[in-house]
Design a protein that fits this description.
Length: 161
């Protein structure tokens, strides 16, 4: 009869090697820096939707607001959860942004009343557009890549490499 007892010797060694290979998740965001970046990004996003947008190239004027909105959401989640890994923040931001965009397909009176307010329009938007999903992906991707570069730089400074 064949023994069904698992061989734990290799499993423990393999698990140890895998754990050592994983990056240490000691990254912590500066809330002061993120607060400043949130304010700057909101200002840029509002400017892209104002009369100042006539001075921008048409492509930038069309898509900058949605891209900056997603970047702002990424920064807000990073501010709220300073120890959470950048990839987790990016996935959560995309999920939330996509959910808000798809919610625009729902057109009940009460939600449209919220969307008719300035804050409601800025947060919830008005109409579903596939291009917004691309803008959100670009905005979140920019935040995620920037943060990964910052994490790599801080690790090199700590290790002296």
């Amino acid at each position: 009869m064949i023994s069904r007892r698992p061989h734990t010797g290799c499993r423990t060694s393999c698990q140890t090697l895998a754990m050592e290979a994983r990056p240490k998740r000691t990254h912590r965001r500066s809330r002061l820096l993120y607060g400043v970046l949130i304010v700057i990004t909101i200002a840029a996003g509002l400017a892209s939707r104002s009369s100042l947008a006539v001075h921008l190239p048409a492509f930038v004027a069309t898509y900058a607001g949605d891209t900056l909105w997603a970047l702002t959401l990424f920064l807000v989640l990073g501010f709220a959860f300073p120890r959470t890994w950048p990839g987790v923040i990016a996935v959560a931001t995309l999920a939330l942004a996509f959910a808000i965009e798809f919610s625009q397909l729902y057109q009940a009176g009460w939600i449209n009343a919220v969307r008719d307010t300035r804050v409601g329009a800025l947060v919830l938007g008005h109409g579903f557009l596939w291009s917004d999903l691309i803008c959100y992906t670009v905005g979140v991707g920019a935040g995620w890549l920037t943060e990964l570069v910052m994490v790599a730089r801080s690790r090199r400074q700590v290790t002296g490499g």
